[in-house]
Amino acid sequence: MLKFFERLSNFLSYWYFRYLMVTELYMVETWEQRVTNTAFMLLFVVLSYFNCVYLLNYTASIAKYLVDEVPFSSVT
């Protein structure tokens, strides 16, 4: 079980390192990293909320409209 957490820690450390390299946050100070990470997380949360609340209902209504328009008698 301990090996699992060690592997998980290595995996997360690797991807955090890649995130720092891609966003070039390794060059800034710690407080700037925290502000940027907070902004990214806030953006992610807002977009997730939008997708779950608005986009899901919109696509469900479109799917319902499309399904209601298909004549099922011609399918068989």
From TrEMBL:
Membrane topology according to the record: Multi-pass membrane protein
Keyword entries, A-Z: Endoplasmic reticulum, Lipid metabolism, Membrane, Sphingolipid metabolism, Transmembrane, Transmembrane helix
Bilayer-spanning residue ranges: 40-60
Domain of life, source organism: Eukaryota
Subcellular location: Endoplasmic reticulum membrane
Protein's recorded name: Serine palmitoyltransferase small subunit A
Gene name linked to the record: LOC117642693
